[in-house]
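hi! just following up on the protien thing from before. the input was this:
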Amino acid sequence: MSDPVVLIVDDEPAIRRLLRTTLTSQSWKTVEAGTGEAALRVATEASPDIVLLDLGLPDLDGVEVLRRLRSMASTLPIIILSVRDDERGKVAALEAGADDYVTKPFSMAELIARLRNALRHGLQKEGTAPLFVSGDLTIDLVRRQLFRAGVEVKLSPREWDIMRMLVRYAGRVLTHQTIMKQLWGPTGDVQQLRVYIRQIRHKIEQKPDMPAHIITETGVGYRLV
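and the predicted 3d structure came back as:
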């Protein structure tokens, strides 16, 4: 595969320069935009492999830019750059189809890891592979079986529903509302979801209080590594 192209959308020239310098040193190609309208134009012209999108743009709402990008390319990986206290913006962006988010100020090592992860999932064919493997965890969606270190782990029907959804969107952050709406409809309760997640962690994690598979995104939702 040729070097992946990243569209950097941020109104701060210093941030764009930092990202461009770091990413090109890692053999990524970059194109840039400082406004929402420019981002949509560059996305059409350059056909990027992945997008880094700041929500605080001067002309268009970042979530609206996200929706338009998503309508142009349904499988294009999009990672949100968000200020630390913009929790509402993170949730809105994830609900609108973002794959992940990174808070400012961010670690470049973490950002590159998130980019590679999102790109890897974006390159997969549509649909979920029947067998999911991550570390000591193996999940067979066809046979509805889950193994930890080769030993089968039994899940309740509702635990399995949650796990299957996490596998389907592995690597992406799923908000509380997204999970609850799909599994319980309008009657979903976030505390009930947390109870199920805690039960699953006790079954699949070596250290449930320090999970390596199901990661909590504080105030937002969960991510399956």
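The chain has two domains: 5-125, 131-224.
The chain has a mean pLDDT of 88.
cheers
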